[in-house]
């Protein structure tokens, strides 16, 4: 069981370039999330999705876009990369249960914008 | 709005000593509390959670946390730490039991030395 898989693990972008961070989960989870982690700042929610075709903004959505065409995949798009987007990005997923609810995280994508 | 405060950015401790990592939260609604652990260059893993019921929750590797509603705290404790406990620990809060839109604290780095 692979869980949550993120690709790539590392990437260096030049200012103004675009890229897509990939996230896939094989647990049939309805809910998926994108967080960014900056040093000393904890994790901040960028976007989330409660199911295929449904997405919504989190705390820090500016500069990003998402789509959710399938239950398994939740890609994060950076259109015009800026140095402020240098961060570690984590994708997570969860099942809308109760006592057993838990968010599973991917290994992260370390992005540097220069 | 919810928020989480982890006052200690770093906690150095000797092996086999006890440790407490502090977490305070603020919320105007019911809360569900979590501790996640992040080992170097890895994603986050759930350590333990409080959803309801007993205010003392335990993990399988000897950590425990107590939900204190009057003090709005969810401190993490371990009576005797190991070198392998060296990691970053994040406290998080959610206002929905089945929807893991988490608000994270800034993290506490636990450094265990021989």
Q: How are the elements arranged and paired?
A:
The complex is a heterodimer of chains A (114) and B (114).
Chain A (H helix, E strand, L loop, with lengths): L3 E4 L2 E4 L5 E7 L5 E8 L3 E10 L2 E4 L6 E3 L9 E3 L8 E8 L9 E2 L3 E5 L1
Parallel strand pairs in A: 2-11
Antiparallel strand pairs in A: 1-3, 3-8, 4-5, 4-9, 5-6, 7-8, 9-10, 9-11
Chain B lengths: L2 E3 L4 E5 L4 E3 L2 E3 L5 E7 L5 E7 L5 E3 L5 E5 L4 E6 L8 E8 L8 E2 L3 E6 L1
Parallel strand pairs in B: 2-12
Antiparallel strand pairs in B: 1-4, 3-9, 5-6, 5-10, 7-8, 8-9, 10-11, 10-12
Polypeptide structure, described:
The complex is a heterodimer of chains A (114) and B (114). Chain A has strands spanning 4-7, 10-13, 19-25, 31-38, 42-51, 54-57, 64-66, 76-78, 87-94, 104-105, 109-113. By secondary structure, chain A is an all-beta fold. In chain A, strands 2, 4, 5, 6, 9, 10 and 11 form a 7-stranded mixed β-sheet that branches. Chain B is mostly beta strands and 114 residues long. In chain B, strand 5 and strand 6 form a beta hairpin. In chain B, the strands form 3 sheets. In chain B, strands 2, 5, 6, 10, 11 and 12 form a 6-stranded mixed β-sheet that branches. Chain B is built from no helices and 12 strands. The mean pLDDT of chain B is 90. The chains are: A mainly beta (114), B mainly beta (114). The interface between A and B is medium-sized, with 27 and 23 residues.
